[in-house]
Specification:
Distance between the termini: 15 Å
Structural class: alpha/beta
CATH superfamily of the largest domain: FAD/NAD(P)-binding domain
Number of domains: 3
CATH topology of the largest domain: FAD/NAD(P)-binding domain
CATH class of the largest domain: Alpha Beta
Helix content: 10-25%
Radius of gyration: 23 Å
Largest sheet: 5 strands, parallel
Length: about 425
Protein backbone atom coordinates (compact mmCIF):
# COMPACT_ATOMS: atom_id res chain seq x y z
CA UNK A 1 0.00 0.00 0.00
CA UNK A 2 1.36 3.39 -1.00
CA UNK A 3 1.05 6.71 0.75
CA UNK A 4 -2.65 7.49 1.27
CA UNK A 5 -2.34 10.67 3.33
CA UNK A 6 -3.46 12.87 0.44
CA UNK A 7 -6.49 10.73 -0.40
CA UNK A 8 -9.99 10.97 1.00
CA UNK A 9 -12.82 8.48 1.36
CA UNK A 10 -16.40 9.67 1.64
CA UNK A 11 -18.98 7.14 2.84
CA UNK A 12 -22.67 7.86 2.29
CA UNK A 13 -24.57 5.93 4.95
CA UNK A 14 -23.88 5.31 8.65
CA UNK A 15 -25.34 1.83 8.96
CA UNK A 16 -23.52 -1.44 9.49
CA UNK A 17 -21.81 -1.43 6.08
CA UNK A 18 -20.77 2.21 6.02
CA UNK A 19 -19.30 2.21 9.52
CA UNK A 20 -17.43 -1.01 8.75
CA UNK A 21 -15.81 0.51 5.66
CA UNK A 22 -14.41 3.38 7.73
CA UNK A 23 -13.31 1.08 10.57
CA UNK A 24 -11.54 -1.31 8.20
CA UNK A 25 -9.82 1.48 6.29
CA UNK A 26 -8.15 2.61 9.48
CA UNK A 27 -7.34 -0.96 10.51
CA UNK A 28 -5.71 -1.54 7.10
CA UNK A 29 -3.52 1.55 7.52
CA UNK A 30 -5.33 4.18 5.47
CA UNK A 31 -4.06 7.58 6.65
CA UNK A 32 -6.14 10.00 4.55
CA UNK A 33 -9.41 11.69 5.45
CA UNK A 34 -12.41 9.46 6.17
CA UNK A 35 -15.88 11.03 6.35
CA UNK A 36 -19.25 9.37 6.93
CA UNK A 37 -22.58 11.02 6.16
CA UNK A 38 -25.34 10.07 8.60
CA UNK A 39 -28.84 11.05 7.43
CA UNK A 40 -30.61 9.81 10.57
CA UNK A 41 -31.22 11.91 13.66
CA UNK A 42 -29.51 9.33 15.88
CA UNK A 43 -25.93 8.19 16.35
CA UNK A 44 -25.20 4.98 14.40
CA UNK A 45 -27.02 2.04 16.01
CA UNK A 46 -27.64 -1.65 15.45
CA UNK A 47 -30.80 -2.24 13.44
CA UNK A 48 -31.57 -5.99 14.01
CA UNK A 49 -32.51 -5.68 17.72
CA UNK A 50 -35.26 -3.18 16.84
CA UNK A 51 -37.63 -6.00 15.84
CA UNK A 52 -36.37 -8.39 18.51
CA UNK A 53 -35.14 -7.43 22.00
CA UNK A 54 -36.08 -3.75 21.70
CA UNK A 55 -39.80 -4.44 21.40
CA UNK A 56 -39.97 -7.38 23.83
CA UNK A 57 -41.53 -7.17 27.29
CA UNK A 58 -39.25 -5.45 29.79
CA UNK A 59 -37.01 -3.92 27.11
CA UNK A 60 -34.63 -1.20 28.25
CA UNK A 61 -35.74 0.80 25.21
CA UNK A 62 -32.18 1.87 24.48
CA UNK A 63 -30.62 1.13 21.08
CA UNK A 64 -27.28 -0.65 20.86
CA UNK A 65 -24.60 1.60 19.32
CA UNK A 66 -22.63 0.33 16.34
CA UNK A 67 -19.40 1.55 17.94
CA UNK A 68 -18.36 2.85 21.34
CA UNK A 69 -18.58 6.54 22.31
CA UNK A 70 -14.94 7.35 21.59
CA UNK A 71 -14.62 5.38 18.36
CA UNK A 72 -14.90 8.16 15.78
CA UNK A 73 -12.55 10.53 17.58
CA UNK A 74 -10.04 7.76 18.32
CA UNK A 75 -10.00 6.63 14.68
CA UNK A 76 -10.00 10.19 13.31
CA UNK A 77 -13.22 9.57 11.38
CA UNK A 78 -15.53 12.50 10.71
CA UNK A 79 -19.20 11.63 11.28
CA UNK A 80 -21.41 14.33 9.75
CA UNK A 81 -25.14 14.68 10.38
CA UNK A 82 -26.03 15.36 6.77
CA UNK A 83 -27.62 13.81 3.72
CA UNK A 84 -26.30 13.75 0.17
CA UNK A 85 -28.48 15.18 -2.60
CA UNK A 86 -26.28 14.68 -5.66
CA UNK A 87 -23.00 13.21 -6.86
CA UNK A 88 -20.74 14.69 -9.54
CA UNK A 89 -18.63 11.71 -10.57
CA UNK A 90 -16.53 13.79 -13.01
CA UNK A 91 -15.52 16.34 -10.38
CA UNK A 92 -15.56 13.66 -7.66
CA UNK A 93 -17.70 15.72 -5.32
CA UNK A 94 -20.93 15.25 -3.37
CA UNK A 95 -23.42 18.04 -2.68
CA UNK A 96 -25.08 17.93 0.74
CA UNK A 97 -28.58 19.03 1.70
CA UNK A 98 -27.25 22.32 3.07
CA UNK A 99 -25.61 23.18 -0.25
CA UNK A 100 -22.05 22.41 0.84
CA UNK A 101 -19.96 20.16 -1.42
CA UNK A 102 -17.41 17.59 -0.29
CA UNK A 103 -14.65 16.31 -2.57
CA UNK A 104 -13.53 12.69 -2.54
CA UNK A 105 -10.88 10.43 -3.96
CA UNK A 106 -13.01 7.35 -3.28
CA UNK A 107 -16.76 7.28 -2.69
CA UNK A 108 -18.62 4.44 -0.99
CA UNK A 109 -22.39 4.17 -1.31
CA UNK A 110 -23.79 2.43 1.77
CA UNK A 111 -27.27 3.86 1.37
CA UNK A 112 -29.10 0.71 2.51
CA UNK A 113 -32.73 0.01 1.76
CA UNK A 114 -36.12 1.50 2.56
CA UNK A 115 -39.35 -0.20 3.54
CA UNK A 116 -41.68 -0.98 0.68
CA UNK A 117 -44.95 0.88 1.19
CA UNK A 118 -48.15 -1.04 1.81
CA UNK A 119 -50.13 -0.63 -1.43
CA UNK A 120 -53.67 -0.43 -0.11
CA UNK A 121 -56.17 2.23 0.96
CA UNK A 122 -55.68 3.27 4.59
CA UNK A 123 -51.99 2.43 4.74
CA UNK A 124 -51.27 5.99 5.90
CA UNK A 125 -53.75 5.99 8.78
CA UNK A 126 -52.60 6.77 12.29
CA UNK A 127 -51.81 3.52 14.08
CA UNK A 128 -50.36 1.84 10.97
CA UNK A 129 -46.64 1.27 11.40
CA UNK A 130 -43.57 0.20 9.49
CA UNK A 131 -40.42 -0.91 11.31
CA UNK A 132 -36.93 -0.14 10.11
CA UNK A 133 -35.53 2.84 12.00
CA UNK A 134 -35.10 3.70 15.65
CA UNK A 135 -37.81 6.33 15.25
CA UNK A 136 -40.17 3.62 13.95
CA UNK A 137 -39.33 1.36 16.90
CA UNK A 138 -39.89 4.08 19.49
CA UNK A 139 -43.26 4.94 17.97
CA UNK A 140 -44.19 1.25 18.06
CA UNK A 141 -43.13 0.90 21.69
CA UNK A 142 -45.41 3.72 22.68
CA UNK A 143 -48.33 2.17 20.79
CA UNK A 144 -47.74 -1.32 22.14
CA UNK A 145 -48.11 -0.17 25.73
CA UNK A 146 -51.79 0.61 25.12
CA UNK A 147 -52.64 -2.14 22.62
CA UNK A 148 -54.61 -5.34 23.07
CA UNK A 149 -55.09 -6.47 19.47
CA UNK A 150 -52.40 -6.35 16.81
CA UNK A 151 -52.57 -7.16 13.10
CA UNK A 152 -49.34 -7.85 11.25
CA UNK A 153 -49.26 -7.69 7.45
CA UNK A 154 -46.50 -9.91 6.09
CA UNK A 155 -45.02 -13.11 7.53
CA UNK A 156 -41.39 -12.42 6.76
CA UNK A 157 -38.62 -12.12 9.36
CA UNK A 158 -39.65 -8.66 10.60
CA UNK A 159 -43.35 -9.48 10.74
CA UNK A 160 -42.89 -12.73 12.66
CA UNK A 161 -40.27 -11.29 15.01
CA UNK A 162 -42.65 -8.50 15.90
CA UNK A 163 -45.62 -10.88 16.12
CA UNK A 164 -43.74 -13.15 18.54
CA UNK A 165 -42.72 -10.16 20.66
CA UNK A 166 -46.29 -8.84 20.77
CA UNK A 167 -47.58 -12.29 21.69
CA UNK A 168 -45.03 -12.49 24.52
CA UNK A 169 -46.62 -9.32 25.89
CA UNK A 170 -49.95 -11.16 26.03
CA UNK A 171 -51.51 -9.37 23.06
CA UNK A 172 -53.90 -10.90 20.55
CA UNK A 173 -51.94 -11.21 17.31
CA UNK A 174 -53.19 -11.88 13.78
CA UNK A 175 -50.73 -12.23 10.89
CA UNK A 176 -51.89 -11.89 7.28
CA UNK A 177 -49.65 -13.38 4.59
CA UNK A 178 -50.70 -13.41 0.93
CA UNK A 179 -48.27 -16.27 0.13
CA UNK A 180 -48.98 -19.94 0.98
CA UNK A 181 -46.29 -20.11 3.68
CA UNK A 182 -44.29 -17.81 5.97
CA UNK A 183 -40.75 -16.68 5.12
CA UNK A 184 -41.24 -18.35 1.76
CA UNK A 185 -38.39 -16.54 0.00
CA UNK A 186 -35.84 -17.46 2.67
CA UNK A 187 -36.77 -20.93 3.94
CA UNK A 188 -37.31 -24.43 2.64
CA UNK A 189 -40.87 -25.76 2.66
CA UNK A 190 -39.90 -28.11 5.51
CA UNK A 191 -38.71 -25.31 7.79
CA UNK A 192 -41.49 -22.95 6.78
CA UNK A 193 -44.16 -25.52 7.58
CA UNK A 194 -42.62 -26.10 11.02
CA UNK A 195 -42.68 -22.36 11.78
CA UNK A 196 -46.32 -22.20 10.69
CA UNK A 197 -47.34 -24.84 13.22
CA UNK A 198 -45.12 -23.44 15.98
CA UNK A 199 -46.50 -19.90 15.74
CA UNK A 200 -50.06 -21.23 15.70
CA UNK A 201 -49.30 -23.32 18.80
CA UNK A 202 -47.96 -20.17 20.47
CA UNK A 203 -51.32 -18.50 19.97
CA UNK A 204 -50.70 -16.41 16.85
CA UNK A 205 -53.59 -16.39 14.38
CA UNK A 206 -51.55 -16.98 11.23
CA UNK A 207 -53.63 -16.49 8.08
CA UNK A 208 -51.88 -17.76 4.94
CA UNK A 209 -53.01 -17.07 1.35
CA UNK A 210 -54.69 -13.96 2.74
CA UNK A 211 -53.40 -10.50 1.96
CA UNK A 212 -54.66 -7.05 2.90
CA UNK A 213 -57.20 -5.19 0.76
CA UNK A 214 -57.70 -2.07 2.88
CA UNK A 215 -57.29 -0.61 6.36
CA UNK A 216 -60.20 1.29 7.91
CA UNK A 217 -60.70 3.55 10.89
CA UNK A 218 -64.05 4.30 12.43
CA UNK A 219 -65.43 5.07 15.88
CA UNK A 220 -64.46 1.58 17.06
CA UNK A 221 -60.84 2.00 15.93
CA UNK A 222 -58.75 0.34 13.24
CA UNK A 223 -59.75 -2.72 11.26
CA UNK A 224 -57.85 -4.57 8.54
CA UNK A 225 -59.88 -5.89 5.63
CA UNK A 226 -58.26 -8.96 4.10
CA UNK A 227 -58.44 -10.09 0.50
CA UNK A 228 -61.22 -12.56 1.35
CA UNK A 229 -63.37 -9.79 2.87
CA UNK A 230 -62.79 -10.60 6.54
CA UNK A 231 -62.24 -7.64 8.85
CA UNK A 232 -59.81 -7.91 11.76
CA UNK A 233 -60.08 -5.28 14.51
CA UNK A 234 -56.75 -3.83 15.68
CA UNK A 235 -55.33 -1.29 18.08
CA UNK A 236 -52.26 -1.11 15.88
CA UNK A 237 -51.14 -2.51 12.54
CA UNK A 238 -47.57 -3.35 11.57
CA UNK A 239 -46.63 -4.08 7.99
CA UNK A 240 -43.48 -5.70 6.68
CA UNK A 241 -43.82 -6.36 2.95
CA UNK A 242 -40.20 -6.15 1.89
CA UNK A 243 -37.68 -3.41 1.16
CA UNK A 244 -36.29 -1.63 -1.89
CA UNK A 245 -32.63 -0.64 -2.24
CA UNK A 246 -31.97 3.08 -1.98
CA UNK A 247 -30.53 3.78 -5.41
CA UNK A 248 -31.80 7.30 -6.17
CA UNK A 249 -28.41 8.98 -5.74
CA UNK A 250 -26.64 6.36 -7.83
CA UNK A 251 -29.23 6.50 -10.62
CA UNK A 252 -29.09 10.31 -10.81
CA UNK A 253 -25.28 10.13 -10.95
CA UNK A 254 -25.38 7.78 -13.94
CA UNK A 255 -24.32 4.59 -12.18
CA UNK A 256 -25.68 1.29 -13.44
CA UNK A 257 -28.66 0.17 -11.35
CA UNK A 258 -30.49 -3.17 -11.50
CA UNK A 259 -32.29 -4.21 -8.30
CA UNK A 260 -29.55 -2.38 -6.48
CA UNK A 261 -26.39 -0.54 -7.42
CA UNK A 262 -24.50 -2.84 -9.79
CA UNK A 263 -20.98 -3.71 -8.62
CA UNK A 264 -18.29 -6.13 -9.79
CA UNK A 265 -16.66 -8.83 -7.68
CA UNK A 266 -14.45 -6.20 -6.00
CA UNK A 267 -17.59 -4.14 -5.14
CA UNK A 268 -16.72 -1.37 -7.63
CA UNK A 269 -19.60 0.31 -9.41
CA UNK A 270 -19.74 1.12 -13.12
CA UNK A 271 -18.06 4.50 -12.44
CA UNK A 272 -14.36 4.70 -11.42
CA UNK A 273 -13.72 5.69 -7.84
CA UNK A 274 -17.17 4.65 -6.59
CA UNK A 275 -18.00 1.53 -4.57
CA UNK A 276 -21.30 0.20 -3.17
CA UNK A 277 -21.81 -2.11 -0.20
CA UNK A 278 -24.53 -3.70 1.90
CA UNK A 279 -28.28 -3.74 1.27
CA UNK A 280 -28.05 -1.40 -1.73
CA UNK A 281 -25.43 -3.40 -3.68
CA UNK A 282 -26.18 -5.90 -6.46
CA UNK A 283 -23.13 -8.15 -6.71
CA UNK A 284 -22.19 -11.35 -8.61
CA UNK A 285 -22.58 -14.68 -6.81
CA UNK A 286 -19.33 -16.57 -6.45
CA UNK A 287 -20.86 -19.88 -7.56
CA UNK A 288 -22.87 -18.85 -10.62
CA UNK A 289 -22.05 -15.22 -11.36
CA UNK A 290 -25.76 -14.41 -11.18
CA UNK A 291 -26.55 -11.07 -9.56
CA UNK A 292 -27.93 -10.96 -6.06
CA UNK A 293 -28.62 -8.47 -3.29
CA UNK A 294 -28.54 -9.47 0.37
CA UNK A 295 -30.09 -7.78 3.40
CA UNK A 296 -28.10 -9.05 6.37
CA UNK A 297 -25.64 -7.87 8.99
CA UNK A 298 -23.10 -10.45 7.81
CA UNK A 299 -23.19 -9.23 4.23
CA UNK A 300 -23.04 -5.58 5.23
CA UNK A 301 -20.09 -6.17 7.56
CA UNK A 302 -18.12 -8.43 5.24
CA UNK A 303 -18.69 -6.20 2.23
CA UNK A 304 -17.60 -3.20 4.28
CA UNK A 305 -14.32 -4.96 5.07
CA UNK A 306 -13.87 -6.07 1.48
CA UNK A 307 -14.54 -2.63 0.01
CA UNK A 308 -11.89 -1.11 2.30
CA UNK A 309 -9.31 -3.57 0.98
CA UNK A 310 -10.50 -2.99 -2.59
CA UNK A 311 -10.04 0.76 -2.19
CA UNK A 312 -6.47 0.06 -1.07
CA UNK A 313 -5.74 -1.97 -4.21
CA UNK A 314 -6.73 -5.55 -3.34
CA UNK A 315 -8.28 -7.16 -6.44
CA UNK A 316 -9.69 -10.25 -4.67
CA UNK A 317 -13.29 -11.21 -5.41
CA UNK A 318 -15.89 -10.95 -2.67
CA UNK A 319 -16.73 -14.55 -1.79
CA UNK A 320 -18.01 -14.83 1.77
CA UNK A 321 -20.62 -17.42 2.72
CA UNK A 322 -23.93 -15.67 3.45
CA UNK A 323 -25.55 -16.30 6.81
CA UNK A 324 -28.63 -14.94 8.53
CA UNK A 325 -30.54 -15.19 11.78
CA UNK A 326 -33.97 -14.43 13.18
CA UNK A 327 -35.20 -14.55 16.76
CA UNK A 328 -38.93 -15.21 17.03
CA UNK A 329 -39.89 -15.53 20.67
CA UNK A 330 -37.99 -18.53 22.05
CA UNK A 331 -37.04 -19.70 18.56
CA UNK A 332 -33.63 -18.86 17.13
CA UNK A 333 -33.40 -19.51 13.41
CA UNK A 334 -29.95 -19.46 11.81
CA UNK A 335 -29.24 -20.02 8.12
CA UNK A 336 -25.94 -20.63 6.35
CA UNK A 337 -25.99 -20.34 2.58
CA UNK A 338 -28.91 -19.59 0.28
CA UNK A 339 -31.43 -22.28 -0.57
CA UNK A 340 -33.31 -22.66 -3.85
CA UNK A 341 -36.74 -24.23 -4.50
CA UNK A 342 -35.32 -27.43 -6.03
CA UNK A 343 -32.94 -28.25 -3.16
CA UNK A 344 -33.37 -31.60 -1.43
CA UNK A 345 -34.06 -31.23 2.32
CA UNK A 346 -32.50 -33.68 4.78
CA UNK A 347 -33.54 -33.47 8.42
CA UNK A 348 -31.14 -33.77 11.34
CA UNK A 349 -32.54 -33.61 14.87
CA UNK A 350 -36.05 -33.58 16.34
CA UNK A 351 -38.53 -30.91 15.19
CA UNK A 352 -40.96 -32.02 17.92
CA UNK A 353 -38.37 -31.00 20.51
CA UNK A 354 -37.82 -27.66 18.79
CA UNK A 355 -34.15 -28.33 18.06
CA UNK A 356 -33.11 -29.47 14.59
CA UNK A 357 -31.35 -28.57 11.35
CA UNK A 358 -32.22 -29.07 7.71
CA UNK A 359 -29.48 -29.66 5.16
CA UNK A 360 -30.35 -28.46 1.65
CA UNK A 361 -28.61 -30.47 -1.06
CA UNK A 362 -28.30 -29.20 -4.62
CA UNK A 363 -27.15 -31.81 -7.12
CA UNK A 364 -25.58 -33.75 -4.27
CA UNK A 365 -23.70 -30.73 -2.86
CA UNK A 366 -24.38 -29.06 0.49
CA UNK A 367 -25.86 -25.68 -0.53
CA UNK A 368 -27.40 -24.41 2.70
CA UNK A 369 -28.26 -25.39 6.28
CA UNK A 370 -31.22 -24.10 8.27
CA UNK A 371 -30.87 -24.51 12.03
CA UNK A 372 -33.51 -24.05 14.71
CA UNK A 373 -32.17 -23.65 18.26
CA UNK A 374 -29.03 -25.52 17.12
CA UNK A 375 -26.17 -22.99 17.22
CA UNK A 376 -23.41 -25.63 17.02
CA UNK A 377 -24.86 -26.89 13.74
CA UNK A 378 -24.96 -23.35 12.39
CA UNK A 379 -21.36 -22.51 13.29
CA UNK A 380 -20.20 -25.72 11.61
CA UNK A 381 -22.43 -25.11 8.58
CA UNK A 382 -20.82 -21.74 7.96
CA UNK A 383 -17.52 -23.60 7.53
CA UNK A 384 -19.05 -26.26 5.26
CA UNK A 385 -21.37 -24.39 2.93
CA UNK A 386 -19.70 -22.95 -0.15
CA UNK A 387 -16.96 -25.56 -0.34
CA UNK A 388 -18.67 -27.68 -3.00
CA UNK A 389 -18.96 -30.47 -0.45
CA UNK A 390 -20.57 -33.63 -1.83
CA UNK A 391 -22.71 -35.40 0.76
CA UNK A 392 -25.60 -37.85 0.54
CA UNK A 393 -28.86 -37.95 2.50
CA UNK A 394 -27.79 -41.35 3.85
CA UNK A 395 -24.58 -39.90 5.29
CA UNK A 396 -26.47 -37.15 7.07
CA UNK A 397 -29.09 -39.57 8.40
CA UNK A 398 -26.46 -42.05 9.66
CA UNK A 399 -26.19 -42.52 13.47
CA UNK A 400 -23.59 -40.23 15.01
CA UNK A 401 -23.46 -37.75 12.14
CA UNK A 402 -23.01 -34.10 13.09
CA UNK A 403 -22.10 -31.01 11.12
CA UNK A 404 -19.55 -30.16 13.80
CA UNK A 405 -17.74 -33.48 13.37
CA UNK A 406 -17.85 -33.14 9.59
CA UNK A 407 -16.35 -29.65 9.75
CA UNK A 408 -13.55 -30.88 12.03
CA UNK A 409 -12.71 -33.72 9.63
CA UNK A 410 -12.04 -31.41 6.68
CA UNK A 411 -8.89 -29.40 6.00
CA UNK A 412 -9.08 -25.80 7.13
CA UNK A 413 -9.78 -23.32 4.35
CA UNK A 414 -8.63 -19.90 5.52
CA UNK A 415 -10.90 -16.92 4.89
CA UNK A 416 -9.71 -13.31 4.78
CA UNK A 417 -8.83 -12.02 8.23
CA UNK A 418 -11.48 -9.48 9.28
CA UNK A 419 -10.18 -5.97 9.74
Amino acid sequence: MGNTSNESVLVIGAGQAGIQVADSLRAEGFTGNVTILNDEAHSPYQRPPLSKDYLGPGSSAEPLPLRGPGFFADKDIALLAASAVSIDTEARSVTLSGGVSLDYTHLVLATGAANRQLPCPGADLEGVHALRTLTDARRLQDSLSAARKVVVVGAGFIGLEFAAGARARGLEVTVLEFAPRPMGRALSVTASDWFTQRHIQDGIDLRLNEGVAAIHRDAAGLSVESTDGTRYPADLVLYGVGVDPRTELARKAGLEVENGIVVDSALRTSVPGVWAVGDCASFPRRDSGARMRLESVQNATDQGRHAARSILGDEAAYARTPWFWSTQGSIRLQIAGISEPGDEPVLLGDPAAGKFSIALLRDGVLAAVESVNSPADHIAARKLVGRGLAVTPEEIAAPGFSFKALAKSLPVVPEPVPA
